[in-house]
Amino acid sequence: MVVFSLGQASANDKTPAKQLFGGKRLPAVMPAQAHGFYSKGCLSGGIAIATDGPYWQAMRLSRNRRWGHPALIKTIEKLSNDAALKDGWPGLLVGDLSQPRGGPMLTGHASHQIGLDADIWLTPMPNRRYSADEREATSAISVLKAKSVVVDPNVWTDAHGRLIMRAAGYPEVQRVLVHPGIKKKLCETWKGNRRHLNKVRPYYGHHYHMHIRLRCPKGSRGCKAQNAVPASAGCGKELDWWFNVALKPKKPPKKTTKPTKPKKPKHIMLSDLPTACAVVLNSAGPASEAAVTSRAGGSAQTAYAPVKPVQSPFALPALVPVPKERPFVQ
Q1: Contact, 137 vs 161, CB < 8 A?
Q2: Using CA atoms, how far apart are residues 249 and 271, in angstroms rounded to an integer?
Q3: What is the CA radius of gyration of the chain?
Q4: Tens digits of per-residue pLDDT, 82-104?
Q5: Using CA atoms, how far apart are residues 317 and 92, in angstroms rounded to an integer?
Q6: Which of 203, 191, 186, 28 is nearest to 119 (CA)?
Q7: pLDDT single digits (tens) 62-75
Q8: pTM reported for the whole predicted model
């Protein structure tokens, strides 16, 4: 059984794309593909990570952001097992991935739009299962000293470093975003293989979670790749810039008597996204969330169910066929 949406959105729709995609509770029944760029695109054939696995728990379930390309879900599950069995990290607390069909989010992230981004908390999983309410109310713990840009030795452990470097070592992971203070800590203390330290990239925030970003997967012809990371470890002048310039307290603006009009936010519209995203938005959904949720330790099936050919030329198909995969004009 496939569920169809009666509302059809088009490129000339005046509704912000975040409302169109944020209103979809289930993915599009299409082959798994990432369309567009990480901050301007959508996802077809996405699946959800299970709320609980042997070594992970999904947080903030009410946001409905535990969806991703099957390659992303597979990587998170692999990381949870490797970190627990090899790195002394008890389990992952999984934050935001993407919405069921990707696209701009109602609140928060500018990226996470094509099912290839994941936020993993830097708080170890406890030895019990959180309740639904606890998953909403529990906060991730910063690894920085209060009101500081350096790592707090009372919070940071060697296992934090092993977790981050484990993720950076996967070939499918292009970059791991962390706070500059965390990058500096790894530059100074990491004793293991430093070959993948270049993939650990400093960025604003990210002191209570790491942001894992996958490369464009095979088969996603419409996925726009991000520039490759530099070959150097990134522990020199480029890291110093964050502390000497980017993270320096800003001087307050000079007072002016001239009133200024607040700028209206510019919303991303459906017409701003790849052409494929209108098809993704209007495509059928699966019968249930359970049908497209990855099973811990099992194979994750994409939200795609090919339609059986019609036997009689006079009979209508039981399901409206899903359009065949074809290149879209960007």
Answers
A1: no
A2: 38
A3: 21
A4: 999 999 999 999 999 999 999 99
A5: 44
A6: 203
A7: 999 999 999 999 99
A8: 0.86
